[in-house]
């Protein structure tokens, strides 16, 4: 297991190829709508995420941010363009991928330990070995002693920790996160963001973190990608050069953070306004 | 009975009473109120039974209701007692119950397994659903109880014809619930399982089946009733043993107390089975939050 400690660069990742972790070239995704029409979520989108890089994707609501993740994971296929993971075209669900969903996706009928064990068990690892590993991960996410609980007995934040442990136990080289903390209250959210950073530091997967919260994006990421109002394409990419390790709750007072926030917000604002104008226009049409 | 498993929430201090006993006294008062409530519920239930059964008996004795058509509670009681002590015309009462139960349980088990397997298969595989959907709808719309007449001729007076009738009745109830349950599985959960590395078969057995279980278990309550109906109607149409035969013999000898007595015994059997299914449900749905677990939360 590659245990890259905090402060070291991503060079410790066990990856012999120097190819980027994720590469999207001129990607288009069109869905058929129930009415017989089509809806284009992504148009000509280019995105590269290096191995071990933490990339945040921001954009107005409903612009196709989540679609990007489903394409990388292999849950959906692109309509056009090229989606590659470690230089391999994505044609099925990759085994190197972890996915943390926006809504609860832990299995409500499994207790915490079995939930965390699910991934390796699906992949056929022996039970006793998996149990030890799962206990390790539960310790890392701070849930030791909760092994026998069922998800409905946990708080929202604890369920998110279970979801994180469940994904990370597979030691994915790519971690996709779809607004993972949006259902949590503000305090729990920043605590979870902090913990995410220290967990990320353990195995240093490449991360694509979709969010509509710009502050969260800057606090966490090495790179923030701004998408346009749908059909989404990349509007601008910003490098976040804030030093690590970071304390999420405090970094927003940093002068550099404020500068970055202003720059990125300037790019994002127009798109948010376009998206908002569209929703109000369609609401007026409907009324 | 539900309140035994859900202890009252810790009482919040409503009054500004600073004495250390106030909190426990509020809890005490609450517990006493609950006991009072439960006692009054049981008393009222007893009153309902007394009024209905007593009124029936009374109306018969006052010659307002004709016992030749409607029987009477005391007659039903002595009929059952007679069966218990001297047996029925076709052997001991226990044998009749055993035969009917055997048919019903066999039909139930086979019907449930067939319904669950078919329901999940059609729910998971769209092509199968498209092909077989109309046929299942047609079969569901015919009054299947009539098939009993056919089965008696084809499979004889013995066990098989009743079991098959019970299977036919149980199958559809379970099938539709399993099918719907499979369709309603949270897509997030299946997506998560697939990303975590589950094969299609693993998704079916470890995600679809448990999440459809809520639906399937709900159908089991109804379908054991259907299995009993299948067994009894089968026996009614033609048999050499069983409670259904007992009902028919009583009917043929103009003995309404016999018909109602056999019905009463069936009701007891059905209630016993219902209790077993509820136990099974509680065990299998342990993972659910208590306020959602099973119909008994609504007082049923």
Describe this structure in words.
The complex is a heterodimer of chains A (287) and B (300). Chain A has two domains: 18-96 and 177-287, Rossmann fold (3-Layer(aba) Sandwich); 102-171, no CATH class. Helices cover 38% and strands 21% of the residues of chain A. Chain A contains eight helices and ten strands. In chain A, the strands form two sheets. Chain A has a six-stranded mixed β-sheet with strand order 6-7-8-3-9-10, sandwiched between helices. In chain A, strands 2-1-4-5 form a four-stranded antiparallel β-sheet, with helices on one face. In chain A, helix 4 runs parallel beside helix 5 and helix 6 packs antiparallel against helix 8. By secondary structure, chain B is an all-alpha fold. Chain B has two domains: 2-65, no CATH class; 76-298, MetI-like (MetI-like fold, Orthogonal Bundle). In chain B, 77% of the residues lie in helices and 0% in strands. Chain B contains twelve helices and no strands. In chain B, helix 10 (200-237) packs parallel to helix 11 (243-252) and helix 11 runs antiparallel to helix 12. Chain B is flat, with a radius of gyration of 25 Å. The A-B interface holds A 73, 75, 93, 95, 97-99, 101, 103-111, 118-120, 122-123, 150-152, 166-167, 170 and B 186, 188-189, 191-199, 202, 206-207, 210-211, 213, 286-289.
Helix content of chain A: 25-40%
Integer tally of domains of chain B: 2
Number of strands of chain B: 0
- In the CATH scheme, the class of the largest domain in chain A would be Alpha Beta
Radius of gyration of chain A: 19 Å
Task: Note the gap between the termini of chain B.
Answer: 10 Å
Strands of the biggest beta sheet of chain A: in what spatial order? Answer: 6-7-8-3-9-10
- The tally of strands of chain A reads 10
* SS element count, helices of chain A: 8
Q: For the report, how would you describe the main beta sheet of chain A? A: 6 strands, mixed
**What oligomerization state is this entry in?**
heterodimer
Taken as a percent bin, the fraction of beta residues of chain A is: 15-25%
Approximately how much helix is present in the residues of chain B? over 70%
Could you name the CATH topology of the largest domain in chain B? MetI-like fold
The most extensive interface between chains reads: A-B, 28 and 22 residues
Structural class of chain B: mainly alpha
Inertia-based shape of chain A: globular
- Could you name the ranges of chain B where pLDDT drops below 50 across 5 or more consecutive residues? 1-5, 10-17, 293-299
């Amino acid at each position: 297991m590659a245990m890259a400690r905090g402060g070291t660069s991503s060079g410790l990742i066990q990856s012999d190829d120097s190819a980027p972790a994720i590469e999207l070239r001129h990607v288009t995704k069109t869905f058929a709508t129930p009415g017989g029409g089509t809806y284009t979520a992504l148009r000509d989108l280019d995105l590269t995420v290096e191995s071990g890089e933490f990339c945040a994707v921001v954009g107005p609501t409903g612009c196709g941010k989540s679609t990007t993740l489903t394409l990388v994971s292999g849950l959906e296929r692109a309509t056009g363009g090229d989606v590659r993971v470690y230089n391999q075209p994505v044609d099925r669900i990759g085994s190197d991928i972890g996915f943390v969903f926006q809504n609860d996706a832990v299995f409500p009928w499994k207790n915490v330990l079995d939930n965390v064990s699910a991934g390796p068990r699906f992949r056929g690892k022996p039970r006793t070995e998996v149990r030890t590993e799962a206990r390790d991960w539960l310790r890392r996410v701070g849930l030791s002693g909760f092994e026998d609980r069922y998800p409905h007995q946990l708080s929202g934040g604890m369920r998110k920790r279970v979801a994180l442990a469940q994904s990370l136990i597979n030691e994915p080289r790519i971690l996709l996160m779809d607004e993972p903390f949006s259902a949590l209250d503000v305090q729990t959210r920043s605590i979870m963001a902090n913990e995410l950073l220290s967990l990320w530091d353990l195995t240093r997967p490449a991360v694509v973190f979709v969010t509509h919260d710009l502050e969260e994006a800057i606090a966490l990421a090495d790179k923030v990608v701004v998408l346009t109002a749908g059909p989404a394409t990349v509007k601008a990419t910003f490098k976040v050069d804030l030093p690590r390790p970071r304390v999420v709750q405090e970094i927003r007072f940093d002068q550099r953070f404020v500068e970055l926030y202003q720059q990125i917000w300037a790019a994002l604002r127009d798109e948010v306004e376009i998206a908002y104008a569209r929703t109000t226009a369609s609401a007026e049409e409907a009324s | 009975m539900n309140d035994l498993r859900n202890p009252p929430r810790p009482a919040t201090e409503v009054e500004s009473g600073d004495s250390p006993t106030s909190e426990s006294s509020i809890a005490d008062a609450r517990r006493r109120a609950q006991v009072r409530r439960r006692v009054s519920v049981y008393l009222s239930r007893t009153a309902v039974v007394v009024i209905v059964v007593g009124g029936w008996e009374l109306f018969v004795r006052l010659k307002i209701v004709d016992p030749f058509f409607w029987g009477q509670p005391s007659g039903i009681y002595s009929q059952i007692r007679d069966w218990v002590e001297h047996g029925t015309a076709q052997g001991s009462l226990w044998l009749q119950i055993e035969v009917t139960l055997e048919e019903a349980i066999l039909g139930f088990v086979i019907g449930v397994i067939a319904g669950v397997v078919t329901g999940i298969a059609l729910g998971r595989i769209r092509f199968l659903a498209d092909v077989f959907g109309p046929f299942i709808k047609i079969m569901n719309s015919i009054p299947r109880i009539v098939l009993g007449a056919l089965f008696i001729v084809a499979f004889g007076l013995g066990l098989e014809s009743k079991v098959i009738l019970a299977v036919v009745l149980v199958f559809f109830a379970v099938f539709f619930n399993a099918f719907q349950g499979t369709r309603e599985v949270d897509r997030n959960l299946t997506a998560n399982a697939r990303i975590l590395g589950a094969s299609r078969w693993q998704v079916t057995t470890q995600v679809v089946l448990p999440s459809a279980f809520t639906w399937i278990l709900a159908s089991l309550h109804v379908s054991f009733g259907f299995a009993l109906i299948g067994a009894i109607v089968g026996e009614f149409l033609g048999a050499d043993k069983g409670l259904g035969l007992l009902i028919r013999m009583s009917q043929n000898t103009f003995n309404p107390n016999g018909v109602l007595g056999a019905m009463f015994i069936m009701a007891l059997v059905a209630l016993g089975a219902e209790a077993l299914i509820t136990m099974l449900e509680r065990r299998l749905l342990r993972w659910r939050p208590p306020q959602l677990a099973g119909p008994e939360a609504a007082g049923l």
